[in-house]
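Obj.: predict assembly geometry.
Materials: sequence records (below).
Method: joint structure prediction, all chains together.
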Amino acid sequence: MLGGGFPQGRVILISGGPGAGKTNLSLQFIASAADEGDPGVYVTLEEPLELIRQNIDGFDWKIIEKEVKNKIRLLDFYSVSFLFTAYELRDRRDRDSVTSILEGIEKAVKNIEAKNIVIDPITTLTLQEVRAGAKRRMIADLFTSLRRIGCTTIITSEMSSSRDFMVEEFLADGVIRLSKHIENFQMVSVLRIEKMRGIKYDDQPRRYAITSRGFTVFQAEPVLI
Ligand SMILES: Nc1ncnc2c1ncn2[C@@H]1O[C@H](COP(=O)(O)OP(=O)(O)O)[C@@H](O)[C@H]1O
Ligand SMILES: [Mg+2]
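Observations (raw structure tokens):
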């Protein structure tokens, strides 16, 4: 659909509801890029790393093997993002946690000469900022810092059904949307590329599924929505 993968050095969002497969897709991307010779850094902000390790145990991605060989670095910032209460974070103007996460990412990127970064999800970082203007600036600053690091960055975003577009979708270089639909009492999972600056892409919605082989997008099946 991308005609050769994610555009390099850009910030790309994967947005979707709970259980859509954002964590699966982004980890599978990091693992398969590492197989092709591009090391990657994955940052978890919402799910403890130990639980993620358990979840992906069944997939043949050989994450632990790749960590040992410095092809992958998994960073657990789960504790950072929940260290302060929302009230305290608002008082601190929430800069500190974002800065320390960025520093951690940069260090890991240098360490393993990473080409890809995943931040999963952005929602945790921006949640405490309720002022729309400040939130937009915060996200823009974060994306600018990430582009400066020079890697291709995938950021997952929790899509709420009450809003059509989130501010981060306008600021990112690319957006991939995962959605679920019920059709004749059948669940249909649909992936589509909403935007991808700088490349030509397939904008048709495609069905996908998470199977024992991981995140799989189907080429031919029609999407009945
Ligand atoms: N081994 C597996 N086989 C089949 N489906 C799985 C497997 N592991 C996870 N899933 C599916 O993936 C979903 C969770 O995906 P995840 O990437 O954590 O979603 P998100 O990050 O978008 O909340 C689960 O609800 C389950 O349906
Ligand atoms: Mg997730």
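Conclusions so far: The chain has one domain: 11-180.
To do: check interface contacts against the pulldown list.
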